[in-house]
Design brief:
Elements (H helix, E strand, L loop, with lengths): L4 E6 L4 E14 L2 E5 L6 E5 L2 E7 L4 E6 L2 E5 L3 E6 L2 E3 L5 H17 L3 H20 L4
Parallel strand pairs: 1-8
Antiparallel strand pairs: 1-2, 2-3, 2-5, 4-7, 5-6, 6-9, 7-8
């Protein structure tokens, strides 16, 4: 049996999941990073992207997360996401709506900094759409 740690994925609406994980690939704002058991403590900002979970026993699941934070220590990983969607529930229409919302955010931005941030989110969503071939 592989070593595991406690993984919790939380969105504003609910606790999405809480279970034992062998590893989790997290989309950090400074780059993706993999959390394994006995990981060094880390606090990271998330970017919109795909979170890859390997559950105890080796089953893999993927989640789309839109921003938030990840807190890691030796025994657990907690991801507080602004939005978390199981990829099994993410369809082309839902992702298209996310992209439309992001396009509106770009158009509504009141300054260059806000516009750049909104454009970055839009670009990442489009990349996810392309990667998942949901366009």
């Amino acid at each position: 049996m592989a070593d595991t740690f406690t993984f919790e994925l939380v969105s504003p609406e609910r606790l999405v999941l809480s279970e034992q994980a062998e590893q989790v690939l997290v989309p950090g704002s400074e780059g993706d990073f993999t959390v394994l058991p006995r990981h060094a403590p880390v606090l990271a900002v998330l970017r919109p992207g795909l979170l890859d979970l390997v559950r105890e026993g080796g089953e893999e699941r993927r989640y789309f997360v839109r921003g938030g934070f990840a807190e890691v220590n030796a025994d657990n990983l907690t991801v507080l996401a602004q939005q978390a969607i199981d990829l099994e529930e993410l369809d082309a229409a839902r992702l298209a709506q996310e992209i439309q919302d992001a396009e509106e955010d770009v158009g509504d931005a009141e300054d260059d900094g806000s516009r750049d941030k909104a454009q970055d989110i839009l670009d990442r969503l489009r990349a996810i759409q392309k990667t998942l071939q949901l366009s």
